[in-house]
Amino acid sequence: MSTRTPDLLRGKRVTVVLNWAFLGGAERRALEIARRLKDERGAEVDVLALTERDGRAVELARTLGIPWGGLEIAWDGRTAAKSRPSSTRSGSDVPTSSCRTAPFRTCSAA
To answer: How many structural domains does the chain have?
Structure first.
């Protein structure tokens, strides 16, 4: 008999926020985590870049079947993201004060 607990992320929306569409080590790792959340945990995952420019990270996300969106951010809080994920986790070097202006339920800087 299986005593496996239900996956608490199944069906939850998770947005991975990246500074840009450049594909470096941190971005590659973030996309791998996004893929695992989607494929292994059943979360609804998308990526939001803080730029509308294209790059290799966009190509990789699309190859992995992860929706990608870009949004130019005015760091004084004038521009806000349109999506509202269940939670966010910032892996960027953006100051914590910028998280206070985001319209998300939770936001924390790494």
So the answer is: 1
C-alpha to C-alpha distance for 60 and 40, rounded to whole angstroms: 18
Percentages (nearest 5) of helix, strand, coil residues in the chain:
25, 15, 55
Tokens 């998308």 correspond to 46
Residue 14 forms beta bridges with which residues? Answer: 45, 87
Please check whether residue 110 is in contact with residue 40, taking contact to mean a CB–CB distance below 8 angstroms: no
Classified as helix, coil or strand, 15 is strand
pLDDT single digits (tens) 32-68: 999 999 999 999 999 999 989 899 999 999 999 999 9
Q: Decide which of 94 and 28 is more confident.
A: 28
DSSP 31-69: HHHHHHHHHHH--EEEEEESS----HHHHHHHHTT--EE
Instruction: Flag whether 90 is in a domain.
Output: yes
Domain extent for 88: 13-100
Is 69 part of any domain? Answer: yes
67 belongs to a structural domain = yes
Decide if 8 is inside a domain. no
